[in-house]
Write a structure and sequence with these properties.
This protein is α/β, with parallel strands linked by helices. Helix content is about 50%, strand content about 10%.
Length: about 220
């Protein structure tokens, strides 16, 4: 559902799905994916609550900071709800999402919600909804932390004389290579760091600067 006719036409053309201009045009459905700004969620759910009059749809929300208790209250019906925190790498099929399900969600509905999120990356389940705040700070905001590091590395390399395109290529491939290596290794990131850090070498000197600048404390405070 989108009020923008051009957006509806593009989505229908690219994905081969039906679209509607308003919530009122929404018919019977099994799953409702709530992908709207948190500040308008209440008004959207007030309109969607009518679906509970004739069916028991599964609602999946990706709105940050909106608890399942609030979602249920705004819907004014006792229906299954899954809350999800995805992140922007989902745009390229490399998302990392955490899900929390209310007690009303059955096994098949959990599987459906998981399949939807795994279509654009990986998905893990939380048993404690309060931990969703930590997930938001880790994987939800996390891409920005890595983008900042890449941005800074690229800028410093250019300042030190590297061509812009070379600095960009080496930065991106280094970040990607490190992530893939960590993903495919059976050892921890700490051990991988130790293995690339030769005693008395340049990497050790660089890490020393980061330690002296309290990088670990800065990251902890940010999260």
């Amino acid at each position: 559902i989108d009020p923008d006719a051009d957006a509806r036409a593009r989505i229908s053309r690219e994905l081969g799905i039906d679209t509607a201009p308003t919530l009122q045009r929404l018919g019977d459905t099994d799953i409702v994916l709530l992908a709207v700004k948190p500040q308008i969620m209440k008004s959207v759910l007030n309109d969607l609550g009518r679906l509970c009059d004739t069916s028991r749809p599964l609602f999946i929300s990706i709105a940050a900071g909106i608890t399942t208790e609030l979602l249920s209250r705004w819907l004014a019906c006792d229906t299954p709800i899954v809350r999800v925190m995805p992140n922007t790498p989902a745009l390229v099929g490399r998302g990392a999402a955490a899900l929390f399900a209310t007690a009303k969600v059955n096994a098949s509905e959990r599987a459906a919600a998981e399949a939807i999120m795994e279509a654009v990356g990986s998905a893990v389940w939380l048993e404690n909804e309060a931990l969703m705040d930590t997930v938001t700070a880790l994987s939800g905001s996390g891409p920005a932390y890595f983008f900042l590091l890449m941005e800074t590395l690229e800028k410093v390399a250019i300042d030190l004389g590297l061509d812009t395109s070379v600095a960009r290529e080496l930065t991106l491939e280094t970040a990607l290579g490190a992530a893939v290596l960590a993903r495919e290794s059976q050892i921890t990131p700490a051990t991988l760091r130790e293995r690339v850090t030769s005693p008395g070498g340049t990497t050790e000197a660089a890490l020393g600067v980061l330690h002296e600048g309290n990088l670990e404390t800065l990251v902890e405070d940010a999260v």
